[in-house]
Design a protein that fits this description.
Helix content is 39%, strand content 16%. Helix 3 crosses helix 4 and helix 4 runs parallel beside helix 6. By secondary structure, the protein is an alpha/beta fold. The strands form two sheets. A four-stranded parallel β-sheet has the order 1-6-5-2, with helices on both faces. Strands 3-4 form a two-stranded antiparallel sheet. The N and C termini lie far apart (51 Å). Strand 5, helix 9 and strand 6 form a beta-alpha-beta unit. The chain is globular, with a radius of gyration of 18 Å. This is ComF family protein.
């Protein structure tokens, strides 16, 4: 009782804010307010047959993916963009973990967890990782692993070159930027396994395509991809 009163008092002076809308969080709410959780632009792609999934079509003829998944739609200047900005540039790694747990629980309830053996995030180059302090895709992967009760392996892939940002590049430029910069750290760890590769945002899919191709070449049985949000091309 005293702890609750103290928390309420502290909340009046230093209110915790929803990371999507910046309104104060109520008791029992974490990271996202109830209103934003209800109104975020969910894709529900995991409820569609793979051949009817518009996200999967982005990989047709490029990478054989079993599932192409995205929790949210990226809307410029909207709640999702604000969430991703907090995750990538404001040190709020818990945003990625929390969204991963929510999405992972949905995927588990839909029976999709049984289609994966291992979750692998898109890696950052060591220089960028040192500057940011964490990998936002790995935070999402950790949350997904908790929600789906599956293992995650943040070190399974290695980025060998510190590429420029993908923002403002077209598809060909994005592909050229990442086509040869990923390596499998330990091929024996992914041999014959069904891999879910995850990133924060999917636009053209070039980064996830490059990672998936490397994993398949190293002996993965199959590859699926997932992102926090997908943007229109």
């Amino acid at each position: 009782m005293l702890r609750t009163l103290w928390d309420d008092f502290v909340g009046l002076i230093y209110p915790r804010l929803c990371l999507a809308c910046q309104e104060p969080l109520m008791t029992g709410e974490n990271h996202l307010c109830t209103g934003c959780r209800a109104e975020l632009p969910y894709t529900d792609y995991h409820r569609l047959p793979p051949d009817q999934n518009p996200l999967g079509r982005r990989f047709w003829g490029k990478l054989p993916v079993r599932h192409a998944l995205s929790y949210l739609r990226f809307v410029r200047h909207g709640r999702v963009q604000h969430l991703l900005h907090e995750l990538k540039y404001q040190g709020q790694r818990d945003v990625g973990t929390a969204l991963g747990q929510l999405y992972g629980a949905e995927l588990h309830a839909a029976g999709l967890a049984a289609d994966f053996d291992l979750i692998i995030p898109v890696p950052l180059h060591p220089k960028k990782l040192a500057k940011r302090g964490y990998n936002q895709a790995a935070a999402f992967a950790t949350g997904l692993a908790t929600g789906m009760q599956l293992p995650a392996s943040p070190a399974a892939l290695r980025r060998t070159a510190n590429t420029n940002t993908q923002t403002k590049k077209n598809r060909a430029e994005r592909w050229n930027n990442v086509a040869t910069v990923f390596e499998v750290e330990n091929p024996a760890a992914i041999l014959g396994r069904r891999i879910l590769v995850v990133d924060d945002v999917l636009t053209t899919g070039a980064t996830l395509e490059a990672c998936g191709g490397v994993l398949l070449a190293a002996g993965a049985a199959e590859v699926s991809i997932a992102a926090i949000a997908c943007a229109d091309r």
